[in-house]
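User: I'm new to structure prediction. If I give you an amino acid sequence, what do you actually give back? Let's try with this one:
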Amino acid sequence: MDISSIQPHVQASDMPLEELAGNPKLSEAEKVGELSRQFEAVLLRQILGEAQKTVIKSKYSDDSVASGIYRDMTTSQLADSISKSGSFGLAQSLKQQLVRQLKKT
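Assistant: Good question. You get back a string of structure tokens that encode the predicted 3D arrangement of the chain. For your 105 residues, that looks like this:
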């Protein structure tokens, strides 16, 4: 009986970064691709966070702890969405460079 067909293919984007490097089911290109995407997401979070600091405060804006947490969560989700869409392009460029260096070694 072939049990290997029952096992679904593991997606690199579904696992935490700590488990990514040691997973034998993923190819090196998949690992490098997900690492590049997550790096791009971190940079986007910082860019979006800094961009929000320039917003002019008004009497209608809420500066409570809860609104800060909500703002951070939405910024994080937006950065992940942009990164997963591939529209920013930094992750793809970084992946190409890293895969090229892996092939040389």
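You can read the tokens as a compact description of the fold. Here is one thing that stands out. Residues 26 and 82 are 23 Å apart (CA to CA).
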